[in-house]
């Protein structure tokens, strides 16, 4: 008998149809619908219903119901749960930051750029589903990270060069206190024309220093102050109180644990 194991096991069940559902096993937000539907189109399954992107979940919430032959249902269990677990976890984490921010600060997650290309679209969607942004501003801008600053030999030179490209574009610059103390870098960036200061040290003292200097120096209204660096959900209120306009959350969102789902046969 030259049958594969699964083919052998399911031979007595040939032509039987099994109804199944996928359910959440914990609370959160449902994400990964696009990937789920693409995979469903490759499986010989009848799909009755799929929950929409962003569907609110509690333990036991059904996100998909369908039916198919035994072998296809077994494949579905192997292939479908992995498409929704991670995105739903990321969407849930993003939503928690949005809820805790209470509209007092813009929450973004730029860490999607660091994930593998094959999962990038799904995680971008998950971030958006959770309500967070993916860019520190919605207007056209030029972002100068630490390597631009290093190559130009300083914050001011990098910002000045970017400003010369197109006056209308906002220039955002990453400040890490590498060339000068963080406060001096901030002042240099503002004098060169930067519109967004990304304080990427994770140190609240640096944020306090820059916001205080911006107020006393009379240039607070000229810039947006962003903050990043290993931020956790519990630290968010302190960042808000320190005066940041934008917070870029990385690992706390993109590395959120998978949300747990299960596929269960309802009847045969």
UniProtKB/TrEMBL annotation:
It holds the Pfam family QRPTase_N. SUPFAM superfamilies: Nicotinate/Quinolinate PRTase C-terminal domain-like, Nicotinate/Quinolinate PRTase N-terminal domain-like. Residues 13-88 form the Quinolinate phosphoribosyl transferase N-terminal domain. GO terms for molecular function: nicotinate-nucleotide diphosphorylase (carboxylating) activity. Keywords: Glycosyltransferase, Transferase. GO terms for cellular component: cytoplasm. It catalyses: nicotinate beta-D-ribonucleotide + CO2 + diphosphate = quinolinate + 5-phospho-alpha-D-ribose 1-diphosphate + 2 H(+). It comes from the Bacteria. One of its GO terms (biological process) is NAD+ biosynthetic process. Residues 90-264 form the Quinolinate phosphoribosyl transferase C-terminal domain. The keyword Repeat does not apply. PANTHER family: NICOTINATE-NUCLEOTIDE PYROPHOSPHORYLASE [CARBOXYLATING] (PTHR32179). Belongs to the NadC/ModD family. This is Nicotinate-nucleotide pyrophosphorylase (Carboxylating). It comes from Desulforamulus putei DSM 12395.
